[in-house]
Amino acid sequence: MVNDKSIVWLLRVYLLLVFVFIFLPIITSVVFSFNSDRFPSLPLGHFTWHWYDKVYNDPDTWDAIKTSIIVALSASTLATIIGFCTAYTDFRYNFRFKNAYLALALLPPTIPLIILALAMLAWFSKIGLSGQIWALIIAHTVLGAPFAMAIIRLRLQQMDKDLESAAWNLGASEWATMRHVIIPFALPSIISALCLTMAVSFDEFAIAWFVSGLNKSVPVVILEILQGNVDPQINAIGSFVFAITMTLVVIAQLFLFTKKPTNN
């Protein structure tokens, strides 16, 4: 008969295998980014910074990094604002067709990215934004807003609704209550949503490939290099993207699991 300790150990082994399955290809890519050999093979060559130097001296890569940073910062800010407003509407108000409203708010991530990208390309072409950086910002905002809404909504559901009424009874206006009660309570989830949507934007490829035009993001540049030939600088760029994305995700997780303040 399997006891509880055996089940715990089996779950730990399973979790370890899952992490190995997910991160081993990424770790391999990072290792080969420091390998002197052009082709990824064993045994490894000697340690080198050559591929990182090549990326550092490539103006196209820097333009892509600049575009990705601008788009990620802009899209994550807009997505977090929209996500907060949507989450607060769900928390504060009851109205007809509220379930349909929430379903529509959470719809974009459920649509296949290729279909979403083609639809956005057609729409941006009609309004004259095709190929502009604003098109990429809007597209990533649409993609990231549902994630921000879900994270902030989870935090607001932990809040006592009587706190707002108490603030109003003490003479605070609705805006003062929002500033001094709602936002401070939801701040960890707001920061978490900001970081997570930034990571989603920085790492997103399919939509960027269709709507970016000449404003290429880092994932688009990686694909273009890959289509030309086998170039180890892809490993260097990929390692940079992985470091940025993981840092943002870790920060998001730290704030997401911040304990709610206790009421005295």
What's the SSE blueprint?
Layout: H1 4-32, H2 50-56, H3 59-92, H4 98-105, H5 113-127, H6 133-156, H7 162-169, H8 174-203, H9 206-211, H10 218-228, H11 233-256
Number of helices: 11
Q: Per DSSP, what share of the residues sits in E-state strands of 2 or more residues?
A: under 5%
Computed structural class: mainly alpha
Q: What does the radius of gyration come to?
A: 23 Å
The number of domains: 1
Helix content: over 70%
Q: Label the CATH architecture.
A: Orthogonal Bundle
Q: What are the low-pLDDT stretches, counting only 5+ consecutive residues below 50?
A: none
Number of DSSP-assigned strands: 0
Briefly note the CATH topology name.
Answer: MetI-like fold
Written as H for each helix and E for each strand, in order along the chain, the element string is HHHHHHHHHHH
For this structure, what is the CATH class? Mainly Alpha
Mean pLDDT: 82
Mind telling me the CATH superfamily name? MetI-like
First-to-last CA distance? 48 Å
Q: Largest beta sheet, briefly?
A: none
Note the overall shape: globular
